[in-house]
Structure formats: structure tokens, C-alpha cells
Design a protein that fits this description.
Layout: H1 2-20, H2 25-86, E1 91-94, E2 103-107, E3 112-115, E4 118-121, E5 125-132, E6 135-137, E7 141-147, H3 152-174, E8 177-183, E9 187-189, E10 192-198, E11 205-211, H4 214-229
Antiparallel strand pairs: 1-2, 2-3, 3-4, 5-10, 6-9, 7-8, 10-11
Length: 231
């Protein structure tokens, strides 16, 4: 950005000098050479900056891959320990990948459920429902202009045949137009939260935010209601 500003300043200064005529031809040549050098330097710096940006993007991608690999290994170790202690669950709901504290695991035989990393007995689940805080997104409005006696292009073609190029222009301009406004349907964006009431003084309510995921919301609520019926 600084290089571009310097080059622009030099070019404007050159035009000002040419307009004033206060410099000799030799001095103008020297000044012109300076501008050429500045342009070359600017191009080289631009190429270097582009190369630096590419290297930075590659480093960022590599760091992300390494972080994902480390996170995956840590999760696999935690899950292996969890399965060793509790066995294979009868039902699992994953809210967020690679995060044991964002999962629900149900053990029907032992009548226990792990919700967001905490263990509860079936009998501790009192009730389960959900809330929704939706917002309305207005549908897009599009203006469509049509001619009452055919399209404008059609009128232009007829005019061209009858009266030549002038007729084409007149035909296009005199066509009667009708503008219609078409609005798409409004869209409802849901924002769900599952609310589980537990038999616990310290943590009586567990809230699980599921956002727009209606199917996931229904699955969690349905599972908790089954647990309530079997406690």
C-alpha cells in the first residue's frame, strides 16, 4: 500500500513538473528513471507479499491440521477410558464432535445416563421439554418488468422490420410496461433449547442449546421421556 502511494505521488509530481516546465530535459529523464525504478520495486514487493501470504496460509492450514490431529487423539484416549469404565452404551447422541462433554450416553441395564459429561440415574430425570426463540426473516422482494403487449425486445424486432433502425428504437421505447413485485415467502429461523429438569439441588436444570436442529431436539426430548418412563 505504501509503495503504491509513493508511485502515485511520483507520477503526479512528474505531471506537475511537465506542466510547469521548470526542469531541464536531463532532469526530467532522471526523474522518469526514478519512477520506473519505483514501479519495478513495487512489482517485486507485491510478488514478495503474495509469496508471504501463500506461506502464511499454508502455515495456518498446517497448524489447523495438527490441532485437529491432537484433538482427535485426546478424544480417542478419553473415550477409550470412558468405555473401559462403563462399557458400550445402548444409545449415544453426539452434540459436538470430538468432545466427550458434549455427548449423551445411555445405559439401559444399569439405568444410568451421562449428560454433558456428568452421570445421572434414570430416577434423577424428572422432566424434559424444549423452548424455541424463533426469528422471522422477510422474503426477498424482486421487481419484474414486463410489457403489456409482449416483451420490449419483441417490439424492437417488429419495429426494425417495418421502419428500419429508427423504428426499432421507437418500438422499444413506446412498448407499455408493467412492473410486478414478487416477494418470496418469509422464513422462520428456529433457535431450540432442550430443558431437562433433574432431581438435584445444585444443578436442577440442564440446558442443551441445539439451535436450528429440530431433529436433534426431538431426539433428545424423546430419549429423555423414554428414560422417565423406565425409571
Amino acid at each position: 500500500m505504501k509503495t503504491k502511494s509513493i508511485i502515485s505521488f511520483l507520477i503526479l509530481l512528474l505531471f506537475a513538473i511537465l506542466g510547469s516546465g521548470s526542469f531541464t530535459e536531463g532532469e526530467l529523464k532522471i526523474f522518469g528513471i526514478m519512477i520506473v525504478v519505483a514501479v519495478i520495486v513495487g512489482i517485486v514487493m507485491g510478488l514478495l507479499n503474495a509469496s508471504d501470504d501463500k506461506e502464511a496460509a499454508e502455515r495456518l492450514q498446517k497448524n489447523r491440521e495438527e490441532e485437529l490431529k491432537a484433538k482427535t487423539e485426546a478424544y480417542n484416549n478419553q473415550m477409550q477410558q470412558f468405555l473401559t469404565l462403563n462399557g458400550t452404551p445402548d444409545k449415544t447422541i453426539i452434540l459436538e464432535k470430538l468432545d466427550l462433554s458434549s455427548e449423551i450416553h445411555v445405559y439401559e441395564k444399569s439405568k444410568k445416563v451421562f449428560v454433558l459429561g456428568k452421570e445421572y440415574a434414570f430416577k434423577d430425570v424428572i422432566s424434559c421439554t424444549f423452548s424455541d426463540s424463533p426469528r422471522i426473516v422477510k422474503g426477498k422482494i424482486t421487481a419484474v418488468t414486463k410489457s403489456k403487449n409482449g416483451s420490449v425486445i419483441g417490439r424492437s424486432i417488429v419495429g426494425d422490420v417495418v421502419a428500419g433502425p429508427a423504428g426499432a428504437i421507437i418500438g422499444g421505447v413506446t412498448a407499455k410496461k408493467n412492473t410486478e413485485y414478487i416477494q418470496e415467502d418469509d422464513k422462520t429461523i428456529h433457535d431450540y433449547t432442550v430443558i431437562i429438569n433433574m432431581n438435584s439441588i445444585s444443578d436442577p436444570i440442564i440446558r442443551i442449546h441445539t439451535g436450528e436442529k429440530g431433529r436433534l431436539t426431538n431426539e433428545i426430548v424423546g430419549l429423555m421421556n423414554v428414560i422417565i418412563s423406565r425409571k
